[in-house]
Fold:
Amino acid sequence: MRLFLFPLLVFGLPLLEIAGFVIVGNWLGLWPTLGLVVLSGFAGVVLLRMQGLSLLREINEEGRQGRVPGKAIVSGAMIVVAAILLIIPGFVSDIVGILLFLPPVRQLLWDLIGRNVVVRTHYSGGGYPGGKSSGNNRTIDLDEGDFERKPDASSPWSDRRLDEP
Structure:
């Protein structure tokens, strides 16, 4: 079934976009249609900038509170996809992009896929911010003969003096 979706997207989506251009072009005319395409691309750039900054603040706040920002990261990915869909010329992609910018739509998608999303984190210092150890910490202990460092005389950071040839 999944193999059927890929050719449908590759061939069907451009045909759908072309049909959208024809329908809107017949309804509005050439110049208003081109104006809408340029305006939607500009709106995608502006919305990405506005929504992206607020999303970065949200991810930062969740990290400060010790929570894994899984929902915020997925929401950010949806905003990036929405902006790309608005920047790409086409009315069908613009409609999907506008829908992805709406928080209730992103919440609905998060409710559908959120239980399947796994966010892994790595904190230095031996545990999670709450103080609980993860139990996966490993210490690698090397003896003197296990590691050897040889200086490179041609390196500008070597110990040779500047006045030596």
Notes: The longest helix spans residues 30-64. The mean pLDDT is 77. The radius of gyration is 26 Å. The CA atoms of residues 2 and 59 lie 33 Å apart.
